[in-house]
Design goal:
The protein is built from 17 helices and 23 strands. The protein has about 700 residues and is α+β, with helices and mostly antiparallel strands.
Length: about 700
């Protein structure tokens, strides 16, 4: 231990050290199958976060393999086997396979030797054999608290590899919260990269050791919350993050309940940690460690939430106010608990968590729960409320009854038995939140300011939650600048049933922005992954806008060339546009930033058209626009009504991406979708420094 540590942190280190050491591993070359496994040089460290899953740094699994693909690479894991947390356990070695690295672009672009790898610099390893091992307890907080911590990893101070721990303080964050600065109280030795960083006050892992300073002690760690940036699953599947966190919580729940396990568990250690700041409720303001472990386990037995917005809505109801937006969206029921620490107004944390758990017990899950799982959660909530305040049990009982009634109403509505308002026909955009990207030209320069937000659905008109913003990006640099903000916004909005649309609100001259072709998440263009539509910036709607929108949604649809006649340019007059039927879709085939198309796009907006098609013309000016108009006319006739167009255009992009020649005419096609029910913010970000 470093000199000068408080008595409380010294006691916490004493309690937690054997638990962390038991779960920390040495990462090296894979076993060779001839009994010499584990004898090669150490690449770095890692630690078990769930049965069969090891977390480490991406640069650790990239050791000695600059020319090899990281995902799918086999590595060796040496760990404590059959460990006794009181001391001398044996070690075992097993092969593991890298399941995923973050960020994914490390597969294509890696830094030079001795350079820092891009944040978050994480790798998740799947162990390839069933082995018995310990697991750490991961924090549920979205942000670390700057207290004393211990960090662990593999060192060779005495000539042989061993797992050791040292202490320091957290000194701040970096990389927009992705990294944590470690104080210089002690050295980070080679081989400790990938090891866990443990909050000594709360007994939970908050980070992964990433790098040391060249000039002295201290360094950087990666926040474990960055695990939420693991790739989102395909529709109808459970994502890797949720699977791993579910396994984490069930492991600790099983350890806590087991009568066969005589070893100290993380829950036991949490109960013996020195008390935190005084609880004004005399011990009733927070759940006990055993209650917290049980609650996490019961939540893990339920199907995961359908979307991040579902979690945030329940947290808001339990806190009594909207939770402050954090860098990364909550993806699991457990993440919601992390937003309920220290609720406003001095309200009890435990009461807020029980309100949240009550609401989860009557929520709509992405799939039917195991029979009795939701009732078991509610029974536990009711029993725990008695320990806190007896009147709380009555409050929660009424909350539970209201929730059951509301869930029954929603299910009847979905079944079409008692619908409040019309049911959206199949094939239309999902009614929930969407991702809003706003881009503004920066004066006369070829640079742009931008803002990414979450635009709430019609149930919360006008609600816009900012995610990130930036200034002075070039058009070529926009995809890289927007990669992380859009990925986070997608995580917040995507549901189990559907990918949220991307709405790009720009001036008409920017309708040629190739947003649908950007590769932001995974290796597939965003326009293939989800609907992408353009919108005019916020302004008062034209008098005819509502009628034209409703008529187009109902169909049938008529197409009308707005900026060309048989391939020759034309400028439509206001009178001609006003006289077209309300179910007309004006079609543009020329460059949006040039006349006559730019004037036409302004004119069709002034005439109240909310559904418009435009196109980025091909590089060769001699290519005829006839195949585009012919293909679009057939598509509009087959679609029948406008509300299905965003998803049908996404499907066409997917066919073209899959090399279907019959869909090649869609190259560059863009849909302007000015939905009057989804109001846009009217303010623009400040321009950059002059």
């Amino acid at each position: 231990m470093t000199e000068g540590r408080t008595v409380g942190s010294a006691r916490a280190f004493e309690l937690l050290e054997p638990l962390v050491q038991a779960a920390t591993v040495r990462v090296h070359a894979p076993p060779d199958g001839y009994g010499t496994a584990g004898t090669g040089p150490t690449w770095g460290s890692g630690f078990f976060i769930a049965p069969g899953w090891v977390l480490t740094c991406a640069h650790v699994v990239g050791e000695g393999g600059a020319a090899v693909r990281l995902t799918g690479r086999e590595v060796g894991i040496t760990f404590s086997s059959g460990v006794s947390v009181t001391g001398n356990g044996s070690t075992g070695t097993v092969a593991g396979r890298v399941e995923c690295v973050l960020p994914e672009r490390l597969e294509e672009r890696r830094p030079g030797r001795r350079a820092l790898w891009d944040l978050p610099d994480l790798a998740l390893i799947r162990v390839l054999a069933p082995v018995s091992h310990a697991c750490v307890w991961l924090t549920d907080r979205s942000r670390p608290r700057f207290d004393e911590v211990a960090y662990f990893g593999c060192t060779e101070d005495l000539g042989t590899p061993e797992i050791t721990g040292r202490t320091t303080r957290l000194r701040g964050t970096a990389g927009h919260g992705a990294a944590i600065r470690l104080g210089g109280d002690d050295e980070i030795d080679p081989g400790m990269s990938g090891g866990p960083v443990v909050d000594l006050a709360r007994g939970e892992v908050v980070g992964v050791v990433k790098a040391r300073r060249h000039t002295g002690g201290g360094g950087l760690a990666v926040s474990v919350v960055q695990l939420r940036t693991l790739p989102m699953p395909a529709r109808g599947q459970t994502g890797l993050y949720r699977r791993v966190m579910q396994a984490h919580d069930l492991h600790h729940y099983d350890q806590h309940l087991s009568d066969l396990n005589s070893r100290r568990t993380w829950t036991d250690a949490h109960g013996e940690l020195p008390a935190e700041d005084g609880d004004p409720y005399g011990g009733r303001g927070r759940l006990t460690p055993g209650e917290r472990t049980t609650l996490c386990g019961l939540l893990a037995e339920l199907p995961p939430p359908g979307s991040s917005e579902v979690v945030r809505a329940l947290v808001e109801a339990a806190r009594g106010e909207e939770p402050e937006p954090h860098p990364l969206a909550p993806l699991s029921w457990r993440d919601g608990l992390g937003l309920l620490h220290d609720p406003p107004g001095g309200a009890g944390e435990a009461a807020a968590m029980l309100r949240y758990a009550t609401d989860v017990s009557v929520a709509d899950y992405r799939e039917p729960p195991t029979p009795g799982a939701d009732e078991e959660l509610w029974d536990w909530v009711r029993a725990t409320a008695v320990r806190l305040w007896r009147p709380l049990r009555r409050e929660l009982g009424e909350r539970h009854e209201r929730g059951l009634a509301e869930r029954a109403r929603r299910r009847r509505a979905l079944a079409g038995q008692a619908v409040h308002g019309p049911v959206r026909p199949s094939g239309g955009l999902p009614p929930g939140a969407s991702v809003l990207l706003e881009v503004w030209a920066h004066g006369w320069e070829d640079v742009y300011d931008w803002r990414v937000s979450v635009l709430a659905g019609p149930e919360h008109p006008g609600r816009v939650t900012p995610v990130d913003s930036g200034v002075r990006a070039t058009e070529a640099g926009l995809p890289e600048a927007l990669r992380a903000p859009l990925a986070e916004a997608f995580r917040r909005c995507d549901t189990h049933e559907a990918a949220a649309p991307l709405e790009v609100a720009v001036a008409p001259e920017l309708f040629g922005l190739a947003a649908d072709e950007w590769v932001l998440v995974g290796r597939v263009p965003v326009g293939v992954q989800r609907p992408v539509v353009f919108r005019y910036p916020a302004a008062d709607p034209a008098p005819a806008a509502a009628a034209r929108w409703a008529r187009a949604q109902a169909g049938p649809l008529l197409d009308e060339r707005a900026d060309c006649v048989r391939g020759r340019p034309r400028s439509p007059s206001a009178g001609w546009l006003a006289g077209l039927p309300d179910n007309t879709v004006p079609v543009h085939c020329r460059a949006a930033a040039e006349e006559p198309t730019l004037g036409s796009l302004h004119a069709v907006r002034d005439a109240g058209y909310g559904v418009v098609v435009c196109r980025r013309p091909p590089a060769d000016p001699g290519v005829s626009c006839a195949p585009f108009h012919r293909g679009l006319r057939e598509e509009l006739a087959d679609a029948g009504r406008a509300e299905v167009l965003p998803l049908r255009l996404q499907a066409l992009r997917g066919r073209a991406y899959g090399a279907d020649p019959d869909a090649y005419w869609t190259a560059g096609a863009a849909l302007v979708w000015n939905d009057p029910a989804r109001a846009l913010p009217e303010d623009e970000p400040l321009q950059g420094d002059l």
